[in-house]
Design a protein that fits this description.
The chain contains 20 helices and 13 strands. A hairpin with a 5-residue loop joins strand 7 and strand 8. The longest helix is centred in the N-terminal third of the chain and has 133 residues. The chain is mainly α and 887 residues long. Helices cover 56% and strands 7% of the residues. The strands form six sheets. A three-stranded antiparallel sheet has the order 6-8-7.
Length: 887
Amino acid sequence: MKEHNNIIKSHKKLYKSGKAWMVATLLTVGLAGGAAVTGTTNVHADEVTPAQATGTIQAGSQATDTNPELANAQSDAQKQQATIDSANAQLKDQQNQLSEAQGQQSSAQQELDQAKQAQQAATQNDPAVKDAQEAVDQAQQQVDNQQQVVNDAQTVVNNDAQNVQQKSDAVSQASQAVDQAKQAATDAINQAASQKTDEAQNTINNLESQGKAQASQNLDNQINNVSGQVTDAQNNVNNTNAKIGDLQNQVKNLQDQEKNTQTDPNIKTVPNGVIDTSKSLLENASRNNLWMSADRSQDNGNIIPQNIYVSPDNDKTAPDPYANIGNASGSQYDNYFNTNFDLVNQNTGMTDSQKQELAIWMLNEINHAREQRGLKPFVMTEQKYQQAQVRASQQSANGLEHNENDIISAFGQDQYECLAYIPTNGGSNMLSLLYNAAGTLGNMLNADASSDWGHRENFLEDTGTLSANVAFGMHLTDDGQYYVLTFDYDLSNPDSTPNMMDRIAQYQAMGPITGDAHTVDNSAQINDLNNQISNLQNTLASQQSHLNDLTTQLQNLQAQKANVQFDLSQLNADQQAEYNNAKHTLDTINDWKNGQLANINKDGHVQDALNKLSSAKSNYKSAQETQTQDEAQLQQAKDGLASLNQVLATKQSALSNSEQKANAQANQAVKDKQAKLDKINGKIADLNKAIEATKATIQNAQAQLDADNKKIADIKNGQKPDTPTTPAKPDTGKDEGNKGTTTPTNPTTPAKPDHGNASISGQAGHKPGQVVDNGSQATDSNATNKPTIVLPTNGKESGAATQGQYINVVSKDSVAAQAGIQAPAAPETTSVTFGIEEGTMMTREEYKAQQANLPQTGNDNDKAVVALGVLAGMFGLGLITKGKKEF
């Protein structure tokens, strides 16, 4: 057996309370074998010896005579030793009683075993029991046989279930096969019909599209024709309204002349004359000759233009040398601008009469430019003017796009055309708007290089002897920033519709506007004009009725075009025949396909799949029937098993009754022996509790003795005993004085303290162990194996106690030897942390009183633990209560 010599390592922490220094020591003890045992262990009393005091009581007559405190401590230590001795005696007695009880326990157990054997023999040899047992065995065999029948029937039913599931799966697969066969046949039928159906349907679709297209074209032609008629009718209505309006204005003028017997408030002074703000700018300029000079190099004080600058053909971009002639910035021209003179609504734009006025202004300027070049002036009929307004309102005109279809729809034929914008900015009255329009015309005449001078050519077209019919159209854009300006003409002689350009001459014939008071009789002229107005109103009613009819006809045609329907009559004879053949082919193929699909089950593949499905369903039904029959047989077998189990239970009950009758006397003997054993066990339990209490008494007395010895040592060393304060933390290996580090050997979790399962062997009177210098951890391997406790007895030793380190060498053999056993080998060491409990210790007298009653416990395997108990007794192990401090 390998011997393990381990060093008790003492890491001292010094702490001071008052003037006294205390030493806290952490001890690590390596023990071979079991170092800690928990629970209660019963042992024979002769296997242990009573526990003895583990410390040496410090005595000295000189100290006692001279120091009362030392004398008291020594007296108390003696009392504690007496308590320990008494408790040990009591422990020995208790252990003897325990040993005796244990012997009785063994005898009682043997008697109980013999009673049970007699009970068993009595039962086995009884004839009634044997007969009942044979009946039970026979019933059990029948049950076992029937159970096998049930198991076999259950196996058959389980196999039936698997077979039914397989047949069900076969039905599902066959059903899927039928669906797949039908789908394949359907796909084949559809594919066979698809090609011819598609060809016939495409032919039908193409012919219907052609028919709809022809019908749509026919409707377009009708719509264009009626649209032209609507335009003409609208122009007639507009022209008649214009004539009526003009005649009504003339009547009003004549009536105004009659009424104005004093100065008219509408008469405003301007350079070279007056203007009547109640009349149009065109009438004022024409009647009062307010035109700018025809010689543009001259300034006659008038600001209303009727001439426009045209650059030379050989220098088309040449600027106007007289651009600043006729500047209207002077205050003398304010009446042209500051009064309500021919104002333009800035939200809704020019009225129709103002548009006519501006068209006459612009064409007057163009015609003067043509006359200067020897060209025939343009004519602008009222019908042409109305058509121009339609053209200006079209979307293509708004985008300055020359759309031939729109031009034809507006005028009934193609036209020469110019497109531009007139800005509305600053055009709050007709004079300002005339300036804006003149600027647009000047750009088209003299800054048209980007259009290859096409606008200039249209305005200056040489028409020879023809008086070309032209018109200006104007339409306010949605954002209100511009007027779309159109200029269209053709080279055919104009019809008999009055020329709007004659209006200037008509105004001139009316004579000048004056501001003088006068009396005028215009009744004859007024009557004549009213007659003309009446005739024109009759004509207007007829024209409006015709326009309404045409508009309704146009709306009907447009509705037909929006929802044009196919009609076979829209096709020619060949197309009709082709269409009818395609329809017949399509109907024939659809009839064939529908017939095939309706009889899909007659397809060979489908029929084969249906036959397999029918067979699978038949097999499935047969398997279900077999399963039902087998389940019925299984239930019968289970019913038979249940009946046999009832029989078995009856016979088992009879067997039990027979056994009870047969061993009634033997049963009572067993009960008596069991009661005797239970009583002995109770006594053993009580003794064990008493032994534990005695051990506790010894431990408390030992702790008080240790405290007394500590106090004695402190007094002898000249230190005043003091209550320990909170200890310092355990050393980590390096001492406080930097004297080197020590490394514990295989440290483990400290073993739990013994709580009384091992007695404390007699260790009182051991001498202190070897004292080792600071920083040295070496020890003599030949030192005594008995555990020691160091208690300094004089002043010299007190210095070592406070400064030196005490290393106790303890081997497993030394501990085992003191316990009287051979310690088993152990591969590990166990660390035990010893602590000192704060609080009140027992007196020596109390300790001695308890010592006599201490029991002894232990067994062969616990002698090493007994040795550990010796060490625990020396160092206060096991006295851990509330307030315990570990060092």
